[in-house]
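Minutes, methods subgroup
Present: GH (chair), OT, SY

1. OT presented the first of two proteins processed in the latest run. Sequence and structure tokens recorded below as shown on screen.
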Amino acid sequence: MNKKFKVLALLLVLALSFNMVSVFAATSPKGQDLTKVESYKGTDNVVPEPAFIIYVTQPTDPWQQDMDAVAELTKAGKTPIEFFDDAVKADVANLLPAGTDLAALQMNEFVPISALNYEEAYGDVTAAFEFPTQYAEGQPLVALAAVYTLVNSVTNEWSAEWFACAAEAKMGKVYITFPADYVAKLEGGWGSLAILN
């Protein structure tokens, strides 16, 4: 094997490895560690008190269950959007450019989140996230945020209420606007955040 061929083979292995890391980074513990929430702004530019946070939690049971369900869907040849019900799909479509093929959307982030110290006066909250995946400015994005409710503690069954949220990539960050009723429900509880692009 000549030197040039060895170099090309090494570059190919590195490229493939990088692609696999980018696909799974956001759903791994390391990917959660790489996700940061940096700033908040309420409706009408209200600045929340410093005690208010939306943050990435340790993996939770309902988050893991949903992540496994999405993985099973994709393993079966389906697309991530098929995980969500028709009402959520309609909300997603309304936040993306007309004619967007929802079946072509990729899910690059799926992290467990929670919130603390939310106040009604904040209204809708826009938070700046840094994710392992880099998104181009102006790239069509939508965020999907869940809040979980325990249905049966014996069987560890959870229900999820999903909200489609506007998302915008800008200067290396993704600005996500969470509706007031979502953040109020998430307060002190468990949720998930996914990005579709």
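2. SY then presented the second protein from the same run.
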Amino acid sequence: MKNLPDRVEDVVIAWSGITEPFSTQTPLATLWSKTGQAHTTPFQPQAVTKLISMLQDEFQHSKPDARDLSGVLPTDFKPPGAIDTVSSLVLAVMFAPTFAMSHALALGLAHPAGRAHFVNAVADEVVNRLAPANRPATKKTAIRKHTTTAKKRTAGKRGRSV
């Protein structure tokens, strides 16, 4: 399985159609200008929109290293944005938010051990919150319990019990 940077580079290669080696410091606009599509499809916003769509497909929630790229917009790319090179695109994808664990669980995509840990943690919390000892039946009971505890503390300081 390829790592995240290699997968981003593969998407860039598929998007641009470039077959010759290139540096990750190469501006994306330069790569696009070398394609056969550059004369009919401008880099901003059409080519960038296509690149974003391809990245979203590659890093969708059902694949490894899934990322939520729904917030990536054509304006994030230079000009006027900060994503300029293949390297800066890799960083943008790498630091994009991952899908929430609960979202993954709802879709049944979490690793079994992670799913078991999460489910057990939620079950423990539910049991703790529903336990009668942790939940006074009425406000009056809570006040009485607090008063009794305070009396025990005071009596303990004096050396006698209640």
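Chair's summary of item 2: The chain has two domains: 4-94, 101-158.
Next meeting: continue with the remaining queue.
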